Amino acid sequence: xxxxxxxxxxxxxxxxxxxxxxxxxxxxxxxxxxxxxxxxxxxxxxxxxxxxxxxxxxxxxxxxxxxxxxxxxxxxxxxxxxxxxxxxxxxxxxxxxxxxxxxxxxxxxxxxxxxxxxxxxxxxxxxxxxxxxxxxxxxxxxxxxxxxxxxxxxxxxxxxxxxxxxxxxxxxxxxxxxxxxxxxxxxxxxxxxxxxxxxxxxxxxxxxxxxxxxxxxxxxxxxxxxxxxxxxxxxxxxxxxxxxxxxxxxxxxxxxxxxxxxxxxxxxxxxxxxxxxxxxxxxxxxxxxxxxxxxxxxxxxxxxxxxxxxxxxxxxxxxxxxxxxxxxxxxxxxxxxxxxxxxxxxxxxxxxxxxxxxxxxxxxxxxxxxxxxxxxxxxxxxxxxxxxxxxxxxxxxxxxxxxxxxxxxx
Length: 410
Prior knowledge:
By secondary structure, the chain is α+β, with helices and mostly antiparallel strands. The protein is built from 6 helices and 13 strands.
């Protein structure tokens, strides 16, 4: 049998093997990875729940808007919607980061599969070259040159071994080609999904800005109504007095509890001390001091119980001005999101109008530890931090301790 016939026979066998390999089941394998599609799908389910909550709030807001007498309830609803949108944005950003990691993993898988494909292709070519170089030693010549039936059976066993070996080479090559194609398709899908999520992030940021503008307009419209303004002043001052007493009570009870626990251990706990505060945020620009004032903002007391720190946005960190234990971390329709830290019986600091609270009741915080992010929740005309200090159960002027401030009021 000449070489042309041998090459033709080998090509026919290779073609047959490749056709048979098309029916092989394909299994994509990947080592344990930091991110999986299932984890991204779980994030999408979380986002779906947030969307459902937001839809319910939007329905409630429409009902509130029909009853214009309760503007603060509308503001509270908007604050809650804004918090949900912020959670959606965080969720979307996490999805983008997960896709970036998943895409990197897929690209690494493709590179590894390409390497294996090249090795298998070289092996395949080497097998073909070896068969061709043997010249007369072919599948057909072994069969046709058998001298007896038993010789033929032995030759067939030999041929089966050769064919099985060649077939494995071809099947491995074909499986790798299929795997490479599937991985490329997977990568294209992941890139498309990531782009879709990026577009979703843009839409959510735009929605956030619209809701923030709506919340600020609501407060501005409220300030323009003198009757409502005076009503809110009275309500807010009464609520502030009740809350001051409640804060003092919680601080006292916490100190008593800590004293009992220390006594059980044979220890003593020192009481609160004056001073030792640091600035609660990076800005030192004070827009409103403690005491009597007129701001033109509905619901903002003329007897200001703290200081307002401006030149902050919706991402400025708020830190504990002094070490202590969190006794309040909640939302209030006047204060918005706020945190109160106790530094001993009757010694507290309060941080108001936060866009996000980062601590829970009972948390022990070090001086300078983040407790939240600035914002304009509650009765607020724009992002700022309202900061209060109470010593021995009485409000004191924070500027007695925070002396390196910039005066921003008239």
